Amino acid sequence: MKKFTLCLLTAILGVGLSANAQIQKGNVLVGGDIGKFDLGLSGSKNFNMDITPKAAWFIEDNIALGAYGRFGLQTAKDAATTTTYGLGALGRYYMGKDTEVLKHGRFFGEATLGFGGTNTSGGGANTNGLNFGVGPGFAYFITPNIGLETLLKYNGLTGFGNKGYQNNLTLSFGFQIYLPGQHTINKVKGDIK
User: Fold this and answer.
1) pTM here?
2) Nearest CA to 82 among 43, 42, 36?
3) What is the Cα–Cα distance from 168 to 157, expressed in whole angstroms?
4) pLDDT digits (tens, 9 = 90+) for 69-113
C-alpha cells in the first residue's frame, strides 16, 4: 500500500509540471463553471445563478470528450422565475503550446450538444429540446493539476414550447481538476522500479 501511495503521489506531482501534462491521453478532467451569479445584495431582491458541472476524459493529447449537466435559476421579487436545465455530451480541444504571457495557460475550444430547456413561470418563454453551444476559453493552471478557466460561449436551444428558439452569449468562470489516468500512473510506476 505504501508503494502505491508513493506512486500515486509521484504521478500527481509529475503529471503537472507544465500545462501539457494535464491534457495528455488517459487523464481526466472534473469540475464546473459558474455564470450569471447575482445574490441581489444591492436591495433588488433578485437571485441569479447558472452552474454547469463537467467531467471529461482525454482520448488523445489535447482532445477531451465527456458529459455536462446544467442548472440555472433566475428569480426576483414580484417577477417570473426562470429555470434552465440541460444534460449532454461535451468536447474540448486545447490549442497550441503554453502561452508566452502566462506560461501555465492554454486556449481551448468547447462544444456541447444535448437535451435542455428554459422555462419561465406565468406563461413566459418556454423551450425544451435540443441544446447546443460552442465557444473559446482559456485555462490558467494555478497548480500542476488545478485550472481556473473563463469561457465565452454561444448557447442555442431549439425545440418545443411557446418559443421555438432561444439563444444567448454567456461568459462563465470555471474551476477544473486534472487527474492522472491509469496510463500515467502505470508510466510513473514503471519509472520508479
Assistant:
1) 0.77
2) 36
3) 9
4) 999 998 888 888 999 999 999 999 998 765 444 678 899 999 999
Bridge partners, 114 (sequence order): 88, 131
For 2-192, the fitting CATH number among 3.40.50.2000, 3.20.20.80, 2.40.160.20, 3.20.20.70 is: 2.40.160.20
Nearest to 22 by CA among 116, 147, 166: 147
Cell of 56: 471529461
Q: Which residue has the cell 485555462?
A: 139
Angle at the Cα of 37 from the Cα atoms of 54 and 137, rounded to 5 degrees: 45
Query: In Å, what is the CA distance from 170 to each residue of 33, 132, 134?
Result: 11, 13, 11
Among residues 133, 140, 145, the alpha carbon closest in space to that of 91 is found at 133
Give the C-alpha separation, 76 to 87, whole Å: 26
Helix (H), strand (E) counts: the chain: 3, 8
